[in-house]
């Protein structure tokens, strides 16, 4: 058996990989398989100028065995997937950078929860207290009690978001009472709310001279919020609108009373129903108090707390 000979030009020894090789085999034994040996030699050749089988010249696919082609296609899929993933990651980072541009660093939910808890607990020592008097719920219908429970949830949610929160206390909150059961039923996590609940009356918890009962029927407009005072809101949803009920209760105990300064900063707005009311839900009153406590601005506070449906607009808006 003679060795295989290759006809190449000596002028370019480095570029031999780019030249076509021929397989010439001379068999001493007529029983040899010349084609099999040639095919084995051809599989050893590498064409570095071809990235994929598609780039090969027509008719050259015979150089690749089925196994080589299968591996080549598999590798191409991997490369394509990696490129796609890198592109998606780049777009995601770009979108996040655009979203966070000019915005303060966002904390995780756990960190935000801890910050909120710390802020609320600090309010118990230094901020004004807001008590919801629930002693009148026995005279309310089930529908009214449900509405009150929803208002308590909204009030607590607003206080959690406030930059300068109040400390909330539910007085006259008796375990097993209709309002207690409704709060637990309607408000997820109510038992974990960061606030006080007690069956006692606010009259037994605080010195009377520190209490300010907030009622829309008071003659005194609230001028400022004193962190050393306790502000009481009557937990009353009365669809029949019993006049001066909370005022009478405050006067029975010679308590100081006040109302939101709606008449001082707002005017009646003409509407189809000619409806005007200064009676607000407890969460609406709280929104006004909370906004004023942060901004020291009554027009802004009243805009936050008094909905347009009450028939009032700010004086500057009416001009």
UniProtKB/TrEMBL annotation:
<comment type="function">
    <text>S-adenosyl-L-methionine-dependent guanine N(1)-methyltransferase that catalyzes the formation of N(1)-methylguanine at position 9 (m1G9) in tRNAs. Probably not able to catalyze formation of N(1)-methyladenine at position 9 (m1A9) in tRNAs.</text>
</comment>
<protein>
    <recommendedName>
        <fullName>tRNA methyltransferase 10 homolog B</fullName>
        <ecNumber>2.1.1.221</ecNumber>
    </recommendedName>
</protein>
<dbReference type="InterPro" id="IPR047911">
    <property type="entry name" value="Trm10_B_MTase_dom"/>
</dbReference>
<dbReference type="GO" id="GO:0000049">
    <property type="term" value="F:tRNA binding"/>
</dbReference>
<dbReference type="InterPro" id="IPR038459">
    <property type="entry name" value="MT_TRM10-typ_sf"/>
</dbReference>
<feature type="region of interest" description="Disordered">
    <location>
        <begin position="1"/>
        <end position="21"/>
    </location>
</feature>
<feature type="compositionally biased region" description="Basic and acidic residues">
    <location>
        <begin position="88"/>
        <end position="103"/>
    </location>
</feature>
<keyword id="KW-0175">Coiled coil</keyword>
<feature type="region of interest" description="Disordered">
    <location>
        <begin position="80"/>
        <end position="103"/>
    </location>
</feature>
<keyword id="KW-0808">Transferase</keyword>
<keyword id="KW-0949">S-adenosyl-L-methionine</keyword>
<dbReference type="GO" id="GO:0005654">
    <property type="term" value="C:nucleoplasm"/>
</dbReference>
<dbReference type="GO" id="GO:0002939">
    <property type="term" value="P:tRNA N1-guanine methylation"/>
</dbReference>
<feature type="domain" description="SAM-dependent MTase TRM10-type">
    <location>
        <begin position="116"/>
        <end position="313"/>
    </location>
</feature>
<dbReference type="InterPro" id="IPR028564">
    <property type="entry name" value="MT_TRM10-typ"/>
</dbReference>
<dbReference type="GO" id="GO:0052905">
    <property type="term" value="F:tRNA (guanosine(9)-N1)-methyltransferase activity"/>
</dbReference>
<keyword id="KW-0489">Methyltransferase</keyword>
<dbReference type="InterPro" id="IPR007356">
    <property type="entry name" value="tRNA_m1G_MeTrfase_euk"/>
</dbReference>
